[in-house]
Amino acid sequence: MARASESILIDDFAELIKQLKEISPQLRKDFDKGLKEAVKPMSDLAKTFVPGSVQYKGRDVFQQEPPIYSTPAWVDDKIHRSRDPLRWTWQADVVTRGIKIRRTTKNKVPFGYNKVAVAALALVNSAPGGAIYELAGAGKESSRKKTKNVSRNYKAPEDFRVLFPKVAGNPYRLIYRAEAQLGDKVRRDIANVINTRLFKFVKGTK
Amino acid sequence: MVMARKEVAVDFITRLKDKGFKDLDKNTKKSVKSLQKFGKALGVALTTTALVTFVKKSTQQFAELEKSTRRLESELNTLGIAFATSLATDFTRSLALATGTSQDKLIPSLQKLVATTYTLTDAQKLLGLAVEISGRKGLELEQVTNALSRAFVGDYNALVRLRIGFEKADVEGKTFAELLARLQGEFGTRQADTFADKLEKIKVGFEEAQVALGKGFIQGLEDSGVSVEEFQSKMIALGTTIGEALGKAVGYFEGFQNKLDELAKNPVIKLLLTGLDALIGLDPIMGTGRDTAAKENAARKKQAEAYEKELSDRAKLLKLSEAEALLAKQRAAELKRLQAKEKAAAAEKKRSADLEKLRNSIQFKFDIDAINLQAALRRQLSQTDRDRVLQLSALKISDYQTDEEAIKTLKAATEGRYDDAMNLEKVLQLLKIAGFASDKASIDALAALKPDIKFTDNLDDIIAKLKAIIEGKYSISIGATISVPNIPTPGGSSKSGGLPPTFDPGGFRKKDEDTSKDLLPPTPPVVKPPYIDLPGEIGGEPFKTPFIPDTGRFRFFEETGVSDRRMGLPSFFDPAGFRARDEGVTVNVNIEGSLLSQNDLVAAVTDAVYQTQRTGNDLIVSAI
């Protein structure tokens, strides 16, 4: 799901940051800031793609009102009930806030680097609604069959498949759309931060 | 097991996980980490290449290396020798250090060779050779590996295309073992290292340092008395040492700015020089007693680890040799099985072909269409119909021919060359079937004579012509004299002493007692021999079937009551029209000329016998 194919791989990234911090906390902060600045234009662009409401053929894809949990399954089940009932509705501001730059993750394994790598810098679409909107209609039948659906709202995928037509490959809606437009530039900027800026800083010649 | 990531994200920087590292090959990991540390140390201070760029590059290389190692492991796993993966990577690592070819090129090549040769040992041998050829001739390793692996399975074209001194004529008819011996003779011994070789070796040890070290550095290094190989082997250790020294030094600095100042005052070039001093044994970096003790402990530990690794390697080698021996045995058994299968298939094919041939031969004899066509040819036909029939005959004959022959036949028939179409061999084959020539030698002899026979001839004519040829060829003159047995005197017995000297058979004549008229001897019935059932043949020479006299009308001499009227025999008298009681007829076969084979004799005798049988008399075989 996560796109890691063009990610810059630094095996000892944590150690690098640790050493930078040891040399100078400021250096580390500045390095961090530089990285975030590089990704920020893409983050901003992705936020502009968040629609006020999501409709397909004149019909709202997300519910207008939060669910009332009236079915027996929901009444008996207090565990899976969301703390925020509004999460099932389309809240553009929440989705917008959910698009953020994540500096480090501990156990989030990027696709294609299973078991040996984790993301160190990523732009994520963290709001559930945003993630659904981003991915709906994608995926292969074979992968769907392998996924065990444990949701109380187990018919949701079917509904979304009806409402969001099948997309060949990954859909370009929010962050993926931004990545398609600005991804290369961001990667160049990050390489620049690593290669030039850090180096100059270390040399004290900036 | 880490679960797959379930968030929507675009990754820009990825780091490797420590846990993941533990699962990877330790040696590979160690070398990469050492390189990386060395890179950090030298990269920051010395080179114009940035620290992180180096890290990035080395880790990307590592990722590639890890992938190819996994592929190699998978390949070895299919052979059942996955445990030898570390041996294989050790080999490629040492080969990389020795030859200056990077591991990420060597491992895929090794994988390919393992896939071809099925043994790690052979694959290693070939890889060493491939690297040497690639280095000397300036060829891509992949290209050379491909050529060698193809040559291993007997396809030498790629090897010739490499243009390394093998021409097509050189490799034709040679086994791979012979070519390998030649290749090893030419490329097995290393030539003196060129300057470029040395630079490459340094590059393998620390690729990014190449720019910084440069030509001058290598020259200086050689001047200092340290060989490139020695430097190379110690380079990683040096990098670690410098890295540690730098790390410790950093701890003493109060702040980054101070560090920069300190760096300005004490450029790390000095550290490098100190490192080089350590390398050539002039001055160790660490001075204090505690450091020295720690170093000694580390060295002991390292030695113990090395010993442990060596033991483990030996055990693996032993296991590898056993596994490879087993594989070889299995392959030999498989080969034997395949050969037996092929042999059985060939025998079956031959049997089927023989069977088909026999079937065709029989089918040809009983092919009603062919018989009808032949019969049609004997009638009075218009030229157009005759052409049609002949073409149909050609078409029929082509059914019994191979494709190539059939094309010739049909082409000839289309052009009106019917004699060519109905090739002579086919006609001769008919004769063989008819029994006129009973063995291959006779058929060949007939074919060599090229008798003036046309397919369009009447079959009876063909047979007559061939008979003439057979007789001419073998100079066989068949003559049969018939000794007539004792013919009793009228009223006497045949056993009473024979004919009187005055007996003249010509004085007798047969007479039908009922009508008292002279009885004409009947014409022998024409009986078609059952085994010359040739296409279109109707009737045939009367032979084999014995003549059966009409006993109702014929009489023996004593029964005829013919009186000796002292008259000459009538012109139609034929002694053969009579038969003797209780006694057979002796047939003497006088053969004139020479006989080429027993078959000729048999044919001659048989012919004489047939002629005699035609007379209706019994045969007495007195001697052969």
Structure write-up:
The complex is a heterodimer of chains A (206) and B (624). A two-stranded antiparallel ribbon of chain A has the order 2-3. In chain A, strands 4-5 form a two-stranded antiparallel ribbon. In chain A, 31% of the residues are buried. Chain A is mostly helical and 206 residues long. Chain A has helices at 13-23, 25-48, 72-76, 92-98, 128-135, 141-146, 156-163, 175-203, and strands at 8-10, 55-56, 59-60, 99-102, 117-125. In chain A, a hairpin with a 2-residue loop joins strand 2 (55-56) and strand 3 (59-60). Chain B is mostly helical and 624 residues long. Chain B has helices spanning 18-23, 26-45, 51-78, 85-99, 103-117, 120-137, 141-152, 157-161, 168-171, 176-187, 195-205, 209-223, 228-252, 256-265, 268-279, 289-365, 368-377, 383-399, 403-414, 418-421, 424-434, 440-449, 459-474, 557-560, 598-615; strands at 8-16, 477-483, 511-512, 517-518, 585-592, 619-620. In chain B, the strands form 2 sheets. Chain B has a 3-stranded mixed β-sheet with strand order 2-5-6, with helices on one face. Chain B has a two-stranded antiparallel sheet with strand order 3-4. The two termini of chain B are 100 Å apart. About 27% of the residues of chain B have low confidence. Classes of the chains: A mainly alpha (206), B mainly alpha (624). At the A-B interface, strand 1, helix 1, helix 2, strand 5 and helix 5 of A face strand 1, helix 1, helix 2, helix 3 and helix 13 of B.
Tell me how many strands of chain A there are: 5
Low-confidence stretches of chain A: none
**Total number of β-strand segments of chain B?**
6
Q: Structural class of the helices, strands and pairings of chain B?
A: mainly alpha
- CA(first)-CA(last) distance of chain A: 39 Å
Strand order across the largest sheet of chain A: 2-3
Strand content of chain A: 5-15%
Radius of gyration of chain B: 52 Å
Cα(first) to Cα(last) distance of chain B is: 100 Å
Structural class of chain A: mainly alpha
Average predicted local confidence, pLDDT of chain B: 62
Strand order of the largest sheet of chain B: 2-5-6
Helix proportion range of chain B? 55-70%
